[in-house]
Design brief:
Length: 134
């Protein structure tokens, strides 16, 4: 299973440079193989709200969780010490360390467009890499 980083979802919503790659990934991957952290969900909501795309957020929640079967994963209070250690060890910001800890805890592969995960033990795959490996 895959944990899909915030930047992947936003790439599609904001029609950025790799939006087509992300669209292919999301269209071809069974949604029951995808996970999203609660932190990422809230971050997406904040970004889309600030950009005046509130309806896009509602559609996203409906498509992913109501009509789809994307899993929502979260960290517990007990995970926060490990998260802070990950921040220090791998020089990740809080958001990336949250994703990393969730991937570590639940045995997930990180799918991200950011290279920050490349310097970690878990690494990451791009959406295109995941599709190539199928």
């Amino acid at each position: 299973m895959y944990i899909v980083d915030t930047n992947v979802w936003l790439e599609r919503f904001l029609e950025q440079e790799k939006a087509e790659e992300v669209r292919d990934f999301l269209n071809q991957m069974p949604s029951d193989q995808l996970c999203l952290t609660d932190f990422a969900l809230h971050s997406i909501g904040i970004v889309l709200s600030r950009l005046g795309k509130r309806e896009a957020f509602v559609r996203f929640v409906r498509d992913a969780f109501v009509d789809g079967v994307v899993s929502l994963v979260r960290l517990d209070f007990e995970d926060m010490e490990a998260l802070v250690q990950i921040m220090a060890r791998d020089n990740l910001d809080f958001a990336d360390a949250y994703q990393y800890r969730a991937a570590e805890k639940y045995g997930l592969v990180i799918v991200s467009l950011e290279g920050d995960f490349d310097r970690t033990a878990l690494g990451r795959k791009t959406p295109a890499q995941v599709l190539q490996e199928r």
